[in-house]
Design a protein that fits this description.
GO terms for molecular function: oxidoreductase activity; zinc ion binding. InterPro entries: ADH-like_C, ADH-like_N, ADH_Zn_CS, ER, GroES-like_sf, NAD(P)-bd_dom_sf. Its cofactor is Zn(2+). It holds the Pfam family ADH_N. This protein has two domains: 198 residues, Medium-chain alcohol dehydrogenases, catalytic domain (Quinone Oxidoreductase, Chain A, domain 1, Alpha-Beta Complex); 138 residues, NAD(P)-binding Rossmann-like Domain (Rossmann fold, 3-Layer(aba) Sandwich). Helices cover 24% and strands 26% of the residues. The protein is built from ten helices and 18 strands. The strands form three sheets. Strands 3, 5, 6, 9, 10, 17 and 18 form a seven-stranded mixed β-sheet that branches. Strands 13-12-11-14-15-16 form a six-stranded parallel β-sheet, with helices on both faces. A five-stranded antiparallel β-sheet has the order 4-1-2-7-8, with no helix packed on it. Strand 7 and strand 8 form a beta hairpin. The chain is globular, with a radius of gyration of 20 Å. The chain starts with a strand and ends with a strand. The structure holds cyclohexylformamide.
Length: 364
């Protein structure tokens, strides 16, 4: 079928809206008519010079939409179903079987190369040029996307479909980290570094969990204001001096039980660890750093640093949970979203890079 898609042809090129020919869904594949697709900083990996992400490529890994057709062997999904598209995983390894699909050893191969494991491109231009469309098992900056039975999650039809895509990655990562991976509980304290979509989802989740001290740290005052509205009890501008000391002071001198870094800035990660009480846990989800520097004496006293991927969530259960929390008014993730038509994708990218908007969602 003919689809429209935002194609990235080179790391430093703007996106171009193109008409592509998309294959019918094959075994295990699901054709989704996209209602909206969130833009996440991981999509910017397509802009890293080199061969990490094959080009030309359709990016986008926070799609939502309606199932149009399913391939052979797909069960549990029917045309007309409302769905959120999340990350792909193999489903058969020990990690997937023990409810940690984000840590599937095939995570990178299935999601971040944009090429199906069989190597056969599913989309071509009118000239027969292959365009890669398996970014996170979806490539949803498009009118239609081919997902897989593993990453297409059915959701209730009475939620705002065009806004649900970010639940498949960024919002899931922030909320899952707090509620599942770190296991924040009532009365706990947490400091969240970076009040973008992932950090703000973590703030909302900390409030859901009943944390009584929720410190948000960011460089943008507008994001700190939003963090306050979403549940942060204390706000710190990261440009100020001695952030760790200020956080310890907020907690009566001892430090927070949990800290959570979304920035991947090495100095910020060091601060996040230095903000912990002696048995505290620092969760890391940021992408892009090569190395972090850890203070051995801080770790020696019992602090833990924990890498987290996709919030350690199982999308098929956690996405419906987030929607139910939203319905109850306890998890207003829609406050993070600014919508753009798909053909304004370059503006959306500029606005999220500058910090003007938190979570662009592109509407085809
Ligand atoms: C990604 C982060 C980088 C590792 C794979 C999962 N999550 C969201 O974009």
């Amino acid at each position: 079928m003919q689809i429209n898609a935002a194609v990235l042809r080179a790391a430093d090129a703007p996106y171009t809206i193109e008409s592509l020919d998309l294959a019918d869904p094959g075994p295990g594949e699901v054709l989704v008519k996209i209602a909206g697709a969130g833009m996440c900083h991981t999509d910017m990996l397509g802009r890293v010079p080199g061969d990490l992400v094959a080009k030309p490529v359709v990016l986008g890994h926070e799609g939502s939409g309606v199932v149009e057709a399913v391939g052979a062997g797909v069960t549990g999904l029917t045309p007309g179903d409302h769905v959120v598209m999340s990350f792909d995983s193999c489903g058969t390894c020990d990690t997937c079987r023990t409810a940690r699909p984000g840590a599937c050893p095939q995570m990178m191969a299935l999601n971040m190369l944009a090429v199906p494991l069989d190597g056969v491109p599913r989309a071509t231009t009118g000239d027969g040029e292959a365009v890669h469309t398996r970014w996170f098992g979806q490539s949803s900056f498009a009118s239609h996307a081919l997902g897989t039975v593993r990453n297409v999650v059915p959701v209730t039809a009475d939620a705002p479909l065009e806004q649900l895509g970010p639940l498949g990655c960024g919002v899931q990562t922030g909320a899952g980290s707090v509620l599942i991976s770190l296991g924040v509980r009532a009365g706990d304290s947490i400091a969240v570094f970076g009040a973008g979509a992932v950090g703000l989802a973590a703030v909302m989740a900390a409030r859901v969990a009943g944390a009584t001290t929720i410190v948000a740290v960011d460089l943008h005052e507008s994001r700190l204001d939003l963090a306050r509205e979403l549940g942060a009890t204390h706000l710190l501008n990261g440009a100020d001096d001695d952030i760790a000391g200020q956080i310890r002071a907020i907690c009566g001198g001892e430090g927070v039980r949990y800290s959570f870094d979304t920035t991947a800035v090495p100095e910020v990660v060091s601060t996040a660890v230095a903000s912990l009480c002696t048995t505290g846990v620092c969760g890391l989800v940021g992408v892009g750093a090569a190395e972090y520097r850890l203070d051995a004496n801080l770790l020696l006293m019992g602090r833990t640093v924990k890498g987290i991927i996709e919030g350690d969530a199982v999308p098929h259960t956690f996405i419906p949970t987030m929607i139910e929390l939203w319905r109850q008014g306890r998890f207003p993730f829609d406050r993070l979203i600014t919508t753009y038509p798909l053909d304004q994708i370059n503006q959306a990218e500029a606005d999220t890079t500058s910090g003007k908007v938190v979570k662009p969602v592109l509407i085809p």
